[in-house]
Amino acid sequence: MKKYLTVILALMTMITFSFNSSSIAKETITSGKGIWINIWNYPNNPDMFLEHLRAKGINKIYLQISRSNTPAIKHPELLNRILKSAHSRNIQVIGWTYPFLKDAISDAQKFIEAANYISPDGESLDGMAADIEEITNSKAIETFVKRVRGVLGSKYPLIAITFSPLNKSNKGDPTIYAWKTIANNFDVIAPMIYWHGLVQYRSEKGAYDYTMQTVAKIKEYTKNQNIKLHLIGDGQKTSSAEINGFLKAASELQVDGGVSLYPWYVPQDHQIEALSNFKP
Fold it and tell me: Which terminus has fewer CB within 10 Å in the chain: N or C?
């Protein structure tokens, strides 16, 4: 009897471990719904802004921390306030930086400094992302990531903010944009799905089509059908219908890395409402 009991307990342990591992594997730092904030548009009243987001079920903010031509933490006092306010409301804060990658080592050092930053209240960022828009070749990207990984470790989740391959300036073209290198070095790709700049996509169907085509092209260019994606939707003068089209595509694609909106200055009420209603 004792022998059988030992076997049963061992099996239960294996099942529990398998279940927990499976659950962890499905989680990603970008899961859920979020709003992006750049360094020029921090909220004037963080408590009010974040309370409004929390009430609408938005659990992430993506807060720009720096650019290559700024200090590693551009607004430390405001960052401290936002971190404390967000975390008190169970909202995670993902920092992001805009590295030009002209000096990949210097950009990496700023990224690392932000990732390791601890406020006077003991708060820190929940993750970090790099916006890859300027120098986009494999050598610069690999140099940047190698330095970051060397300090933060291989398990630190790295997020790459990228162009959409449909970008009207063709900056997402695979002949000049290192898609495979990005996919091989970052844990999550977060494409900027900004359809509104193209008149033919300014509708619910247009936003839907732009999103579907963006994801299809990224999978094609990275040669990875299972790439982890977080979709950044267009909040720049976009209507509720357009955002609903974007979110419909995200739902049909079963995106498991979350969705968000990048607003024009600050998000409009109808945009937050549309995001709030989204059920992943």
Answer: N
